[in-house]
Amino acid sequence: MHMADALLSPYVAGAVGTAALGVGAYSIYKIRKESDESKIPLMGVMGAFVFAGQMINFAIPGTGSSGHLCGGLMLAALLGPCEAYISMMAILLVQCILFADGGLMAYGCNVWNMAFYACFFGYLCIFRPIVGSKPTKKRIIAGSLIACVLSLQLGAFSVVLETLLSGAAKLPPLTFLMLMQLIHLSIGLVEGIITSCVLIFIGSVKPELISSEKQTEKTSLKKVIVIFAIITVFVGGGLSALASSKPDGLEWSVLNASEGEVIPEKQTVFDDIIDKTALLPDYNSDSFGSETFGTRFSGIVGSVVVGVFLAVCCVIFKLFKKGVVNDHTGKGNRGDK
After folding, report:
1. CB atoms within 10 A of CB 5
2. What are the structural domains of the chain?
3. By CB atoms within 10 Å of each CB, which of 14, 63, 117, 257 scores lowest?
């Protein structure tokens, strides 16, 4: 569902981008104030896992289209909505800057469509009420399926709305809307199944990560981190090469709505920036002499970059938080004297 700049006008991209960055600022504020510091490594490794997972496009039978994991709900269930939103912002930024996946002008729209609905609406309004404080496998499956489907439906609707308001792509509104909603219904169901499987597995290893009940003791997350670090390398460095080459849900919808006509792209300053920063455009590189090896290399590099970037951000938040606390405490001590 990564939007390209060609689908958007600067005004729509700017308005939605401002809203997306505003939610990001709020999320950073909440993380600094309330985040459990023991989850910093988990945030890094799960962000890397979702990046690797997004590289695997799975074919949608009978459509000629494909879909991929978004991962916002999964991250929210494990980390919390604010941590998940920041993780998704990092993932989408790395995909845009290093791999030219999604336009730079469209970055805010992609964050809103793929992260906001899943991390806040899907998790807080659907998943958490269904799963409750004592999760069971049935509740996790039901919550994951319903939340993923509805989150992707809202994301798909927003893509259509943003595209039509922009007027950059002359697409028949009802046809484009119908195609987007139907194909992302299928993608949402698959994502719900994947999400529930991951959450059930983690729940069996570390049940307190899924439960909303506060834990009296902080337990080690090393086992989960090691397991998903290994899985991330396997997925990004191995399974990514098996991804379907069929167009994803958005590309498929645009092609069918436009009756096969390719929407022309205009070279902008944003495209010039991406041309310089995208070291591995489309997750490949001609320098390797092998498309398969290039994809695997991109999967590993991207996962590492996302994981390290998130870990560094969290450490910065942590240090800033300590500085604020120490300053406040120091003032209090001087006042007492």
Report:
1. 23
2. 5-211+221-336 (1.10.1760.20)
3. 14
